[in-house]
Amino acid sequence: MGLVFFVLLNLAFSSLVQAAPGPSISVSPASVEVSQGETFTIEIVVDPKGEEIYAAQYDLYFDPNLLNATSQTKGTFLSQDGTNAIEVINKINNTIGKIEYGETRTAERGISDSGVLASISFEVIGTSGTSDLTLGDVILSDINGKVFESEIGGGTCTVGGVTGEPAVIDITVEKAHEMLEEEPEEIILLDVRTKKEYDSEHIPEAKLIPLPELGNRIGELDKSKKIIVYCKTGSRSRTASEILVQHGFEHVYNMLGGIEEWKIYFPVTSLLTPTPPITVTPSPPALSPPPSLTPAASPAASPTSGFGAITATIGLLAMSYFIIKRKRRR
Known about the structure:
It is a single chain. This protein has 330 residues and is of the alpha/beta class. The chain folds into 2 domains: 22-161, Sandwich (Immunoglobulin-like), CATH 2.60.40; 169-265, Rhodanese-like domain (Oxidized Rhodanese, domain 1, 3-Layer(aba) Sandwich). It has helices at 2-18, 173-182, 195-200, 235-246, 258-265, 305-325; strands at residues 24-28, 31-34, 39-47, 55-61, 67-74, 85-93, 98-105, 115-124, 129-141, 151-153, 155-159, 168-171, 187-191, 207-208, 226-230, 252-255. The strands form 3 sheets. It has a 6-stranded mixed sheet with strand order 2-11-9-4-7-6, with helices on one face. Strands 5-8-3-1-10 form a 5-stranded mixed sheet, with no helix packed on it. Strands 12-16-15-13-14 form a 5-stranded parallel sheet. Mean pLDDT is 83; it is low at 1-9, 11-19, 290-305 and 307-312.
């Protein structure tokens, strides 16, 4: 009896260890209520939960009809011990509502204490509505390039006192792919670009209804199914999603970043005939100069200690950049 109890206790302890969560990254505060004309700031907070984080990256999506991002400022998370940390990407795109950020340390080990990775300031330009603040393409890695499975917590911004869940749900391309993999029979993937764009490239199994035709072709869509809407970058799909909601569709998902973001992770297909390759007749090889005319190879110069340190740092940063920018495919 004692042996059985010990085995069961050991199994229970092992399951708890395996279930331990990895590092987390989240939007703080998770909920913001504002009015048109106001400004506010959110923080992107990382909790390593015992791991050593050396490099970090995220994309943050928002509704550009409601919010205008004005700045993104480096936090102290990766430099809290006094070590220098380098931004490798810091971009704001208010046209499609997408923010990108990436940062890496230059020391010989990572950070295991919580902190603010970056702060983002917004100006409220809309009158009312709810904007999700959705984190995507999150990568937290150690000095060896190991990418941790991370908990991700987004946020919401409510403008003008609107309450309740948003009628249109914003999802990342990773989430859209996951949904299509898990329940393909319950989902309609709707492309609202032009026919020319669709013929050039589209996501496999997508149904084309260009945005200008959507109102007259609503009857082609099944209201009992979930509908994932996409366009090139996420702007037209937002409009199309709102049209679907106005016509009584209850499960509408706007794919953030559109097909441009999808192509980074997953394949697309085309209806166009591929252009045949051009045949080029190779030129005859160039004659080598006689040995007497061939310059002697000069010995490689030994870099000074300062130059060597700079080169090593650049190499480290380059390695970290590719670690950060690596895309996870599922």
